[in-house]
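Reply to dn_fold:

You asked what the input looked like. This is it:
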Amino acid sequence: IKSFTEHRKQLQYYNEATRQQGDKPVLALKEIKSALIEFAYRNNIPVYPVSLEGTQHAMKGPMIKPFRPLGIKLHAPILASEYDSVEEFVSKAWSAVIEGKTDLERKIYS
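and this is what came back:
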């Protein structure tokens, strides 16, 4: 990861195990794996949150069910320099994901 920051390459990362499956509720902040978001904060790397909706209905194991509504929302970058602590930074990134998911739910299922 260090070479990405030294050469200013982009790194895309989707938190493992954060995709909502079945009727399980969305993970709480304390349940997500936040190591790379924390790394981004410590190294002043912008985080671009991504919200997904519909994967819990469109996927069965590794297979995608056709003709299911899906939504994706790309958020504005969250900059480490705008936050006083890593906890605040991680919280803002995850809050953006949850808010986007709620917005997508309204648009898809209304």
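The mean pLDDT is 82.
Hope that clears it up.
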